[in-house]
Amino acid sequence: MRVIRLLLVALVPLAILGVFFVLPVTGMVSRGFWTDGSFDPGGVLDVLTRPRVHRVLWFTLWSAALGTLFSLALGLPAAHVLYRRRIRGGSVLRAALLAPFVLPTVVVGVSFRQLLTASGPLGFLGLDGTPAAIIAGLVFFNASVVIRVVGGAWESLDPRPAEAAAALGATPFQVLRTVTLPALRPAVVSAASVVFLFCATAFGVVLTLGGLRYSSVETEIYLLTTNLLDLQAAAALSVLQLVVVVGLLLAAARARRTADPSLARVVARPRRLARGDVPALVATSVLALLVLGPIAALVAGSLRTDGAWSLANYRALETTGQSSGQQHALLVPVTDALMTSLRTAVDATWMSLLLGLTVAVVATRRSRSRSERRVRTVLDGLFMLPLGVSAVTLGFGFLITLDRPPLDLRDSPLLVPIAQALVALPLVVRTLVPVLGSVDDRLRQAAATLGASPFRAALTVDLPVVGRPLLASAGFAFAVSLGEFGATSFLARDEHPTLPVVIFGLIGHPGPMNYGMALAASVVLAATTATVMLAVERLHVPVGST
């Protein structure tokens, strides 16, 4: 009976997932497997034998591996410094290093291009348009994931085993190798899995920095669907990507379940810096330069016009750019695109919050039987699936499946917010599930015994606990929506583009005015998301690992 009630509660979010996720993805994939009305799986398999597909798969694999390795190499020392040591200005440094977590990928790409271009501060290195630039962009974007996931675990690590090892004569390196890292292994494995996933599915960074020369699976799907209309090849890559990503999600979930018992429930008090922290400080400084350097180059470039300091690029945001012909680079001013992005983000936020809160409640209520526990586990996994599917696949699937009654939403203003809400949903769920899961179910039972309805019990018991994480989830969803580019690049109408779509369009149009506007628009978008993340950081609510 409880299983039936559980399924009834989950019916609405399951229906939404079915209509706006399963249906579009299935429609996209089926276009590749069915040709001329007949089932043709051999054609999809033949795609995987193409030399270009092999190059794309190999580039995705080794670039994601290197991005993960460097993210761990810089993120782990930074997590130690920021969460276990007391340093002056630590809160500001933490906010600066964590901000890239939701910084729009298009902004990251534009920032590195400005830093590495021939006229940029590091142009003499000749790295513009190279794999090294792409990997640097991936590390910029994903080191903050390592800091968040591992730093939260490190902060709550019981210090007594390390202190005992030190008292027995172990050196700081021996303590780290034999005590600390084994205790942090589940968090490190989880962070590495998620970072590899984000590197392998990076879209805006690879598309902006790699162009057509270097393509990952994600950007290849985009090029196959938009430029070549080769849906069969896009479907083959989408299926392959889905299988790999689901495997990574299962590995990350297993790492979360095997949490080490030495992870305490209390927050350890940070200590002063010691001589042994010098290597960690050096690595943290390198990461700070990697994060702040491109942003500084972006801001400086946006303030330069014709070799002089000027606000002309910002004033030009009220125009539609320039073109060599009679047509302008844009149909609407950049300021209008910013307002569209903000309105879209508001809609995507409340959608993802309503859906995510419902999923979190379903996934965290106490199970009284093995079958009920399995159902909850399956439901929790189902709503993580949007993380495992290319946003490009999702966006194109929207176009080809939601185009006829009763689901003809091509002209609906809610189409883009719905897609962005699905992209943000896993982040919302992973933020709320640990919080709701920590609530003692006996408190709800006591409230029910005293005559409280389930709704009143939720207001009395759950709301005080989930209030701050709910606000944090809203901030995360809002920031993710502001920077979402993969699905939005398909769905946004030309007369109502979002700011990331406009920035990418400006980069594609030649002319110093268009490029200067792209830099200024990137600064505006980065400042908006950074402001949101600073507000979230003040709530001190960590993001759960996906």
TrEMBL record:
Transmembrane spans: 56-79, 91-112, 132-151, 187-211, 231-253, 278-300, 348-365, 377-402, 414-436, 470-492, 512-536
Compartmental location: Cell inner membrane; Cell membrane
Domain ABC transmembrane type-1 residues, every copy: 57-250, 338-536
Gene3D superfamilies listed in its UniProt record: MetI-like
Chief place of localization: membrane
Annotated signal sequence range: none
Protein's name in the database: Iron ABC transporter permease
